[in-house]
Design goal:
Belongs to the ATPase g subunit family. It is found in: Mitochondrion membrane. It comes from Sphagnum troendelagicum. This is ATP synthase subunit g, mitochondrial. It is flat, with a radius of gyration of 24 Å. Helices cover 77% and strands 0% of the residues. It has a domain of 34 residues. The model has no long low-confidence stretch (mean pLDDT 86). The chain has 122 residues and is an all-alpha fold.
């Protein structure tokens, strides 16, 4: 266990060194590449305006998303009604998807209650 901690500490030290060495250049390059998205007047009013624009844009996209949801539901209904014609590949994908959803639910419950996956509290 102690050797594992030493390995983890050495890897963390290497990562910290790399971040300290290349972090500022990465930050500057990232800002330079995305300068078209940066507001030149970073005021509170401008931030509130952008927030409202985002909110109402998302609100305006709801009817399209609602229609897409019902198309997906209709597709699933058709697959359920024609379940005798399903291929083994489609059944496998559905089973994996359901298993993944169930696993995320269980992991979410464990983490939400303050537990850990391994059972050991850190």
């Amino acid at each position: 266990m102690a050797s594992l901690m030493r390995q983890l500490q050495s890897k963390a030290a290497v990562a910290t060194e790399l971040a300290a060495k290349h972090g500022s250049t990465f930050y500057k390059r990232l800002l330079e590449e995305n300068k078209q998205y940066i507001q030149q007047e970073p005021t509170v009013q401008k931030c509130q305006e952008l927030s409202k624009q985002l909110f109402y844009t998302r609100l305006a996209s709801l009817p399209g998303r609602y229609d897409a949801l019902w198309k997906e539901i209709d597709y699933v209904k058709q697959k359920i009604f024609a379940r005798n014609d399903l291929k083994l590949e489609e059944l496998g994908i559905a089973a994996l998807f359901l298993g993944e959803c169930y696993a995320w639910f269980c992991v979410g419950e464990i983490v939400g209650r303050g537990g850990t996956l391994t059972g050991y509290k850190v």
